């Protein structure tokens, strides 16, 4: 989603708050709870889940391993829920020709660097680049080439846009900033 006027352009970047991540977090937490409860049931000798009998599972080693997998799965599931809740990677790309600056903002993990903001002078932007790697797992990245600095990626990792859509985005941004396009 983007907003554009004669002097400004704003593009919202979707972070980790996606439907797929929420589904995977639910599946992971529910599955790992099952493992943990069956493992713990084998330890205490009573069925904590009515439909699953743990009488045939000895605590050592099967029940202990199931508890380990349950704890590991819960840890991963809670981590994924945290990234969804905090919307890690979400943010915006803001370009203002009238003021002559650009601001690239992303949310990170909580702590000292939760807010990641890069401010650039538009005069330092040399080109808009497009890096494309085709194959079984295609990877396409739109980036800004900055004079005297590292290139700054503008698209999120795993954004599955077609090459045509990426080229269109690159051309639109290059026209807006009045810079060249590289990497085709």
UniProtKB/TrEMBL annotation:
It is a multi-pass membrane protein. It is found in: Plastid thylakoid membrane; Plastid, Chloroplast thylakoid membrane. Coiled coil: none annotated. The keyword Metal-binding does not apply. The chain crosses the membrane at residues 21-40, 60-82. Keywords: Chloroplast, Membrane, Photosynthesis, Plastid, Thylakoid, Transmembrane, Transmembrane helix. GO terms for cellular component: chloroplast thylakoid membrane; photosystem I. GO terms for biological process: photosynthesis. The keyword Flavoprotein does not apply. It comes from the Eukaryota. It holds the Pfam family Ycf4. Seems to be required for the assembly of the photosystem I complex. PANTHER family: PHOTOSYSTEM I ASSEMBLY PROTEIN YCF4 (PTHR33288:SF4), PTHR33288. Belongs to the Ycf4 family. This is Photosystem I assembly protein Ycf4. It comes from Gastoniella chaerophylla.
């Amino acid at each position: 989603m983007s907003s554009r006027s004669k002097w400004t352009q704003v593009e919202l970047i979707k972070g980790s708050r996606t439907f797929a991540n929420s589904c995977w977090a639910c599946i992971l937490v529910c599955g790992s709870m099952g493992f943990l409860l069956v493992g713990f049931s084998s330890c205490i000798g009573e069925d904590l889940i009515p439909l699953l009998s743990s009488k045939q599972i000895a605590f050592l080693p099967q029940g202990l391993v199931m508890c380990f997998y349950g704890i590991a799965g819960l840890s991963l599931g809670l981590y994924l829920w945290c990234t969804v809740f905090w919307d890690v990677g979400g943010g915006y790309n803001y370009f203002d020709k009238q003021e002559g600056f650009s601001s690239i903002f992303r949310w990170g993990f909580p702590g000292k660097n939760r807010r990641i903001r890069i401010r650039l002078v538009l005069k330092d932007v040399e080109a808009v680049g497009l890096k494309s790697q085709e194959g079984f797992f295609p990877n396409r990245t739109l980036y800004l080439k900055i004079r005297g600095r590292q290139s700054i990626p503008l698209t999120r990792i795993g954004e599955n846009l077609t090459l045509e859509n990426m080229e269109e985005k690159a051309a639109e941004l290059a026209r807006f900033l009045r810079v060249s396009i590289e990497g085709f």
